[in-house]
Structures are given as structure tokens and as C-alpha cells.
Protein: LacI family transcriptional regulator
Amino acid sequence: MARKSVGIRDVARAAGVSVTTVSHVLNDTPHTRVSEETKKKVRDAAAALGYGPNRMAQGLRTQRSAMLGLLSEDIATTPHAGMIIKGAEETARKHDYTLVIINTDKDADPASKHRDVDALLERQVDGILYATMYHRAVSLPPRLFEIPAVLIDATDRTGLVPCTVPDERGGARTAVMALLEAGHRRIGFVNNTDDVPATHGRLEGYRDALKAAGIDFDPGLVAARESEAAGGYEAALEQLDRPDRPTALFCYNDRMAMGAYRAAAQLGLAIPQDLSVIGFDNQELIATGLHPGLTTMALPHYDMGAWAVETLIRLIDGHAEEKLLADRPTLLPCPLVRRDSIAPPRDTTRKPAPDPHPPTD
Structure:
């Protein structure tokens, strides 16, 4: 026997209120005079009866689909950035939205990206999230501007779309401050060669921290290479194979830090006893797999996904001013993840104190 469907009148009867009151409560209609006690009674009755609002009927009435599109460049296949999707999906669900995800290659031709946006618009999504990897400026498909949109880990070259990115400069400042607080004064920076915001922001943060500590910036303590383990090895070797070597290294990312570990081992330097190292990105397979575990800065992937959805829904509802939000990127902090790669420096310059009682002939 087919199960009798539960309707809004059944909920109203069970809660002892009108159908209109049930509709207002379950649809979160703003500016209605319904007490919290009545709202609870209606929601409890709906839950007990297994009733949920008809999404199709709601969509016809409100001209909303309750769906958000997420167009991602590579992040769906990048393990350490999957938290962007999790943050976006969990926040969307909290607001009763469904996330529709299309993954694309960052090097895909513009026509392909245009088709991806068209596919989301054909599904009548209420807004689009556009997420990239590696924090960079992007040119967006023109049709993306037809509905509310928010960028994640990227900036829009036109300056018209709100976006959120990691606070690269602040994260680097925190990283170097951790080394300074441990007592280091001669700190090398193993940087990236790519012309991307993270390269410049992390160098600025490195300089900020030194300046705050009253330490002059020494260009000789900065070595830039490809941002992979091999590049980190080469840059660290350049820094460490010298008489006045630094006692600590701040590395552009965890892959470069892995190369720095190799350079230190080759030179017979123990981490952290002889050399402290801090990375960036918190790529856990690397950071926890190194010995000792790598202290590093985490990128705020989950928070960026969550912020983007919250902001997109505010834009859809007309509760946010797009131009004001797009005026500058929203910077989210990078938290410090402490492991075991930082220790106070050894004093390698101190000479033994003279014997107060030298032997006599």
C-alpha cells in the first residue's frame, strides 16, 4: 500500500496553528510575528510527521532553485585543498542550499570554461563560486557576471567580483615571529621564483617580522628557486653551506622545506638542534611525514569555502553590497601549526671562557 503523503495542513493540525503560520515558520519568512515557542511547536510537528517543504513549489514561487554552483580549477582533485569544498558544502547545507560542483583544469581553454559556466546557468543555480589553486588573478568567463558570484583563493582582474584569499603577508609574519620568539636572529628565507601573490606577500611578511624585531633586512639571506623539493634543497644548500649560515629557515612551502631537510642532513645539521625550519601550506602528508614533524602555516581552505558561501547567499538575498565587497579581497588568517622543527639556536660563536686558574710552570 502506498504511503499517504504528509501535507502542510497535517503539520498545521498537529501543531494547532494555521497553515499560514506553518508556511511562515518552515520557509523562514522574515518580519513575521511568530513566537519562538510556536516556531518550535511547528518544527517539532513537521519533524515528527516527516514533512519537508516542497523545493519545486518553493522555487516556482520564489524564482530560486536553492542550488549554488562551484566551478573549481583543479581543487577537486587536490587533496590538501579539498577543505575548500567541505567548507562550502557544509555551509551551503546549513542554509538549505545544494552545491553543484564542476571541476576543470586551470590550463583549460577559455571556451571550455565558458561551457562550464553555461552548464551551471542552465541548471538555474542562484549563484556561482569560482575556486582556484595557488592564489592568483584570473580572467572570468563573461556570463559569470550575470548572477551573483564569489571567488575563492583568487582575485578578479576586473575588480568586480568579491573574493577571499589567504593573508599571505600576515601568515609569513607569524611564521618568522615564531622563529624570532625561539631566539633566532639570523633567519634565511627559501622563496619561490614564480610571480604570484604568495611569493611577494610572504617576502613582505618576512621583512615585516624582521623590522618589528629591529633586525635589518639582508638580501643575502633570501634564496629563490622553483617551489618544489629540489628547489628547496638548492636554495637551502646555498644558505647553509657558508660560514655565517642562518640558524633558522623560513620556507615558502612544505615541499621546499622537505628539500631544506635534505640539505641540512647532507651538511650534518640536525633539525631542530642545529637548524630550525618552518614551512607554509600545512600539506599534512609532507609535514607529518618529515622527521621531526614540520612546524608550518596552514592555509584557511575550510574558512575560505565557508566565507564564500555565506557571502554569496547574502548577495543572492540582497543583504550585501557587491561593489563594496569587491573593492578589495577579504583576507583570512593562516593559523600556525606547531610540530617539532623549531628550537632555540645553539650559540656557535661563543668561545670557551678562559681558565681562571691557568697551570703554572
